[in-house]
Design a protein that fits this description.
Elements (H helix, E strand, L loop, with lengths): L4 H17 L2 H8 L5 H23 L12 H25 L1 H23 L6 H19 L8 H24 L5 H24 L6 H25 L5 H7 L2 H13 L6 H27 L1
Helix pairs in contact: 1-9, 1-11, 2-9, 3-4, 3-8, 3-9, 4-5, 4-7, 4-8, 5-6, 5-7, 5-10, 6-12, 7-10, 8-9, 11-12
Length: about 300
């Protein structure tokens, strides 16, 4: 495989993963159930863990040789980060609103990733990457926040920033592990830890859930498809691209969510949202170009 095709494959995998992630909100809305968001996130992690176990079993990734090179510390850290990402996100948006909270969480993720990549992996992000990422983040904010009025809450903002940081750290740990073990082993270890943390935390916050049939279908879909298949694609992508670029390309997610909300849920498409969509696409193309140029120069 040529040096050019590898980053293209990684880019396609991240965009594919983000496309699947973008269907999560629509699936939850179409279900129309009464499951609390914190339980929706926790059960999504549980279903994803079951999917990763089945996938690892079928692909032979449960064999001892598939786990020998995997860092236990990194796997546990990735699991804690995934749990923290979910728990802090749902807690944050409860305080400041879904639109603004999502904008802060998603928008801060690439910034955290760029800084952490520079400090801990000694891979300096280029000015072109920062400019393209800033454009994409601006678009993501317009898409996610829209005209929603922000509730002033310092703890809410901090929780959403912590969510973005957790996602960035998860990505860097994942990048470290993809050279040690198969993607299915990595995701199984991380999501199993995350589920074991998130399920008791959800029970402590809201008690046991009343899970209806439509809720169950939505959770199963988002666990198996959006989290399961999505994070397998994301882990595979990190084999051939920088983690900060992968996190920025994940901003394709709100674009998909916005299009589905307009087409399937009948939501209006205002000027701010359309402008945001264009800015995200321009920023993503800039990051793709930067990633390709770096690979070509390597």
């Amino acid at each position: 495989m040529s040096a050019t095709s590898r980053p293209l494959t990684g880019i396609a995998c991240v965009i594919g993963a983000a496309t699947l992630w973008g269907t999560t909100g629509t699936a939850q809305a179409l279900a129309g159930g009464v499951l609390p968001p914190v339980w929706f996130g926790a059960l999504r992690l549980a279903f994803a863990s079951l999917f990763f176990f089945a996938f690892a079993l079928a692909s032979g990734a449960l064999m001892r040789s598939a786990w020998q090179g995997l860092s236990l510390r990194a796997a546990l850290g990735a699991g804690f980060c995934m749990a923290a990402y979910n728990l802090s996100f749902f807690a944050g948006v409860k305080l400041i609103g879904v639109g603004v909270g999502t904008a802060i969480a998603l928008g801060s993720g690439p910034i955290w990733a760029g800084l952490l990549q520079t400090v801990f992996q000694r891979q300096v992000t280029t000015p072109a990457w920062w400019v393209a990422t800033a454009v994409a983040i601006t678009g993501g904010v317009l898409l996610s926040a829209g005209h929603e009025e922000m509730t002033v809450s310092v703890p809410g903002v901090m929780l959403c920033l912590a969510s973005g940081l957790s996602y960035a750290v998860y990505t860097l740990l994942n990048k470290r592990m993809v050279g040690q073990a198969p993607a299915s082993s990595i995701t199984l270890a991380a999501f199993a830890v995350a589920a074991l943390i998130s399920l008791p935390a959800a029970a402590l916050q809201t008690g046991l859930p009343n899970l209806g049939g439509r809720d169950l279908l939505a959770v199963a879909y988002t666990g198996v498809v959006t989290a399961g298949v999505g994070y397998l694609l994301f882990s595979a992508a990190l084999r051939s691209m920088r983690p900060a670029s992968a996190v920025t390309l994940s901003l394709t997610e709100p674009v998909v969510a916005f299009v589905l909300a307009v087409v399937l849920l009948g939501e209006s498409a205002g000027l701010a949202s359309v402008s945001g969509l264009i800015l995200v696409l321009v920023g993503v193309l800039g990051v793709v170009r930067n990633e390709m140029s770096l690979r070509g120069a390597a």
